[in-house]
Amino acid sequence: MRLVVLGGGESGVGTAILGKKKGYEVFVSDFGKIKNNYKEVLLLHKIKFEDEQHTEELILNADVVMKSPGIPDKAPIIKKLKEKNIPVISEIEFTNQFTDAVTVGITGSNGKTTTTMLTYHLLKQGGLNVGLAGNIGKSFAWQVSEDKHEVYVLELSSFQLDGIINYKPHIAIITNISPDHLDRYNYNYDEYIASKFRITMNQTEDDYLIYDDDDQAIKNWLKNNKTRAKLIPFSLTKQFETGAYETENNININTSNDPFVMPTSHLSLEGKHNVKNALAASSVAQLLKIRKATIRESLSDFQGVEHRLEKVLKIQNVQYINDSKATNVNATFFALDSMTGPTVWIVGGVDKGNDYTELMALVNEKVKAIICLGIDNKKIIEAFADVVDILVEVGSMTEAVRQAYKIAEKGDTVLLSPACASFDLFENYEDRGRQFKQAVQNL
């Protein structure tokens, strides 16, 4: 069997190692440059590879192709593979056949990284032999090739879900759905929603789907479509016999005969959206029989995620906050919503079809100045030029932070929450966040 892996990043290299171990003839092809550390790993495992090209005769003879999530279906090589009816799957689908581990799959437009990390933290503190993979850390395939864990918590993007056929998580979470990545879904919101719900398509009556019952897109889908999984809703406004909710400043988890209650004030993470993340993660912990004392302790000592509303420094009584992970409008909505004082907002990057109107009221109320950090800021300027007094365009993170420093006064907050992808000026959102923190430390 010939396995061709498209993309020589984390998921690609992990898949190649697992494929080789399972007896496949493996070839890795990357249209861009493969990083040196990954090249060394491939050489070490004696896996053939090429970069900065796709040699068709070495790809179109595959029995199965694993494509990295970043490669769109519109790519010429993918079209040719589909014409030849060669299966093109994701790393999650490929790996799934080689493990009996229980998986918890987490998707959503926002909150999925925090929910994934929090779920992992709860299960690990609870003594389970648990791995963390998907969009985070060492790839799922790589970990399974080393036969590591009995349970995996997987952060799954819509792109990874597009490439599944048989994969099913024992517990699935959909944190929320709002328009994102529409450039990859023909600017059709319904296609994007359907993609997220692939997470439950193979689930059976023995599996669970945990979802935000306050989310209109999720509720509409569930009204018009069927899943066989047991439904576990969570909400900040309603109460359930089976489900998770907040009431009278307590979080309540009722997924078993033994309900769990804890004051919201004991959560280490601030903000309404983090109450939701805690409801979802605790539901998993309760389903997997983690002790209540452990759940309590873990929810109160969890440290949060880098680049997600991360407090960097206070300088001259101005708080600098790194929310580089906010790559869509909905994520930035949560960030602005949690600001308490006047805010200098650094925004911009590669726009994925954003509609900024839903931020208008918050910007009006909280934002005193906007710093546009992107190659094309036209849409942001058109949206907010009449709403704020100060609007500046900059070409680098250092310049953005310097301008913010000049504008901000005592009691203000400087918030990097770009609402856009980062690929115009940065390698990825982590690079963008690190440059922000560095620039703040250099002030």
Automatic annotation (TrEMBL):
Binding site for ATP: 108-114
Sorted UniProt keywords: ATP-binding, Cell cycle, Cell division, Cell shape, Cell wall biogenesis/degradation, Cytoplasm, Ligase, Nucleotide-binding, Peptidoglycan synthesis
The keyword Acetylation is assigned to this record: no
GO biological process, one term: cell wall organization
InterPro entries attached to this UniProt entry: Mur-like_cat_sf (IPR036565), Mur_ligase_C (IPR004101), Mur_ligase_C_dom_sf (IPR036615), Mur_ligase_cen (IPR013221), MurD (IPR005762)
Sequence similarity: Belongs to the MurCDEF family.
Protein name: UDP-N-acetylmuramoylalanine--D-glutamate ligase
Native source species: Flavobacterium humi
